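Hey, can you fold this one?
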Amino acid sequence: MAKASSKPAVKVETKPAAKAPAKKATAKVKASPDLESVSKTVLEKLIALKLDVQLQADIEWCLGSYSHDKNPVGLIESLNRAAQVFKAELIKKSKGVTAKFVTEIEEAAKG
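Sure. Predicted structure:
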């Protein structure tokens, strides 16, 4: 006959497996428009509407500078000026200038 153990069985409490932290739902953020592509579009629109020749030259120069050194300061300043020009054209209801276009310019200028 086998001897019964004199020590009572010890119950080991097991903790439930820790759940993986819930992943935070990331809000789908609309990608901001690319600074360079918006600048090219703005330049094309300025040329098409024959608006602000000096601004056209500035954007053209800033695009070349940006492609060389990737410093967006000049493009951002030029886009801010372009937004003002297009806002004025929007008030005049010029063909091809929409509120969405102006908003896109402003978003690209914010970075």
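Helices lie at 35-49, 53-69, 73-92, 99-110. Let me know if you want another pass with a different chain boundary.
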